[in-house]
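User:
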Amino acid sequence: MGAVQGRTVSQLLTISGLRVRYGSLMAIDDLDLFVPPGEFLGAANILPISVSDGRAKLACGLVVQAAMNVPADARWLAVRPERVTVGEVDAANRLAGIVVQRSYAGETLTHVVRLEDGTLMRATTVLQQGLAGEPVAVGDSVTLSWQPNASILLRQ
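Assistant: Predicted structure:
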């Protein structure tokens, strides 16, 4: 980990497409970070949303089911990769896409899926008992799903 003004990179908070301040506003060494939308940072998928009539909608048209009230000024949906399931399950939120990458890291398997609008989304599975069923390969069409309590709505 590199250091930024005496702080390690692991202490920095970034959210895709949003300006984020690190530290108090009185600190001389505050960082004002901006990262273009569509990039994966930290451990969250960040997707732009629009809000109308108290409902959050993704660009692909999916009305996002969340376990919280939708703030009128919400602009982003965050979903942690470990809360996203690859394959058909009984979940309120579902998106279709094509697997573009698979990677193993210790006991986890991460799939990167390109959605119909070109957005990339990650799903991470813990492999406690190995792979369950047929493995999903790069190029396979899949469904990504998550429960409403995994939807985090962020304001700009």
